[in-house]
Amino acid sequence: MNRIFILLLTGLCTLSAAVADEVPDQATQAAEQPSQPSLSPTQQWLQLQRSGKSASAQAQPYSGEVMDKVHTRYLKSFEKPIPEFFEHEMRTAR
C-alpha cells in the first residue's frame, strides 16, 4: 500500500513539474489568449497527455507474455454474442 502511495505521489510531483515547464508565464499567456479558469490537477494531467509534449522519445513496447495475454483476452471477447439491447436497472439506496 505504501508503495502505491509513493508511486502516486511521485506521479503527481512529476505532473506538477511537467505542467510548470509547459505553462508560459502569465504575461505571455494573457497576451496570447483570453483568461481561462484555473485547471484542476486532473484536467492538467489530461491536457498534458493530449499534448504529448512530455511523452518519452523511446518506444515502450509490451513484452511477449503481456501481448499473448492481451491477444487471448481479445479473442475471448468474441465468445459471447452482442445482445440486441442492454437492460439498465437503477439501484436505489435504502
From TrEMBL:
Please list the residue ranges that the record marks as compositionally biased, kind Low complexity: 33-49
Q: Positions of the region Disordered?
A: 24-62
Record's signal peptide: 1-20
Show the ranges annotated as biased composition (Polar residues).
Answer: 50-61
Q: Which UniProt keywords apply?
A: Signal
One of its Pfam families is: DUF3613
Statement: the UniProt record of this protein carries the keyword Signal = yes
- Top-rank taxon of the source lineage equals Bacteria
Kindly provide the name given to this protein in its UniProt entry: DUF3613 domain-containing protein
Species whose genome carries this gene:
Methylophilus luteus
